Amino acid sequence: MENFLTNFVRTFILSTLIMTSQAKKHNKSFYKMAPIYVNDKPAIFAHAESPVWDVDTQSLFFVDVHNQNVHRYDYSTKKLYTKHIDYGQVNIVSLVAGSRRLLVAVRSALYLLDWNVSGDAALRLLTTVDQGLPDNVINEGKPDGEGRFWGGTKGPQVGDDVQPDKATLYSFEPDQEGYVQPRVVLRPVSISNGLAFSLNNTIMYYVDSATQKIEAFDYDAQRGEISGRRTILDITTYGYDDAIPDGLTIDSNGHLWVALMFGGTILHIDPEARQVIYGYKLPGVRTTSLCWGGPDLDELYVTTGREKDVIEPFAGAIFTIKNTGSRGVPAHTFRYDNADSY
Predict the structure, then answer these.
(1) Fewer Cβ neighbours under 10 Å: the N or C end of the chain?
(2) Is the pLDDT of residue 127 over 50?
(3) How far is CA 32 from CA 120, 183, 301, 317, in A?
(4) Distance spanning both ends of the chain, measured CA to CA
(5) For the whole model, what pTM was predicted?
């Protein structure tokens, strides 16, 4: 096993050097890619997802879906902290404006999570969705610039197969009495996934993974409504026939960065030109999501998963990609007044 790992690392380093050479030809910086280490070894998870950078604490939050854990990785100390939730799949973690609490999605419900409280009291139920569809889960979501939370569901899943057209994209915001009412935005969808909002808050970028497309909508920030659906990129036109787009993020130039599940790749996309600028290859194929982090928001954090009973060193690791020549913007936060006392 040790020889196998050594050979794999050598092959990975060689392939990275080849790709960085190609990147130079495309006016890309000489980038560096590596897994994060905890206690002198790569931190490996079953299915890491939903990374979000907290500027205030200089920490990376993310979830390990099937192990039902929310994690916080401290940038300065390189320590990993874990909050276990024993309610079912934990697919999303998001920051809450002005609060010590976090927003998390567990199965088909949204909760406020108090990290410092033990037991069931740590979770405060906000709302549930997809009633009558007990196998659906809230799969992915993010706040917009106005503090609404946009989150979508995924239909029943067996292995890697998901029933099509059983899911919905919702937006969530509290009413005057503080009740969070889900509002149907788009239906049907199959695997509601990556979301991002343009820097001027006029476009919402969106992924329904089953379509193999990155799409865009005109976005009315004041009303929280979308219209004018169109395709930005179909990944099959770039040869990714067996992959699906998963999580996505945006950089300070308004470009999109998209994780390709089953493709082991991050695509850097110019949405105005509707073309791929560059693809970053990772070890393993289950590339799930990504976000910008680090003190200058110029380090790309990439979450991955691993396939059961398949040996893939570094599958399930959290990778950092540095020196891409790009940087991110601070993450939007969910607005919920008096979140700490709810």
Answers:
(1) N
(2) yes
(3) 41, 42, 12, 16
(4) 50
(5) 0.92
- The confidence score (pLDDT) of residue 253 equals 98
Q: State which amino acid sits at residue 289.
A: S
Q: H or E segment at 147?
A: none
Strand order, beta sheet including 244-250:
244-250, 256-261, 265-270, 275-281
How many residues can be counted in the chain?
342
Active-site residue flag, 309? no
pLDDT tier for residue 29 given thresholds of 50, 70 and 90: low
User: 173, 177, 95, 182: which is closest to 138 by C-alpha?
Assistant: 182
Cβ neighbors of 205 (< 8 A, separation 6 or more) are 194, 195, 196, 197, 198, 214, 215, 216, 232, 248, 250, 256, 271
Nearest to 32 by CA among 320, 330, 271: 320
Q: Is residue 153 within 8 Å of residue 168, measured between CB atoms?
A: yes
Predicted pLDDT at 21: 40
Which strands form 123-128's sheet, in the order they lie side by side? 90-95, 102-106, 109-113, 123-128
One-letter identity of residue 236 = T
Mean pLDDT, residues 252-258 taken together = 98
Share of the chain above pLDDT 70, in %: 92
Interior angle at CA 319, CA 152 and CA 156, nearest 5: 25
Active-site choice (64, 130, 144, 246): 246
* Residue 30 to residue 332: CA distance in whole angstroms: 30
- Residue 47 tokens read as 């299915």
What does the DSSP assignment read for 196-225?
EE-TTSSEEEEEEGGGTEEEEEEEETTTTE
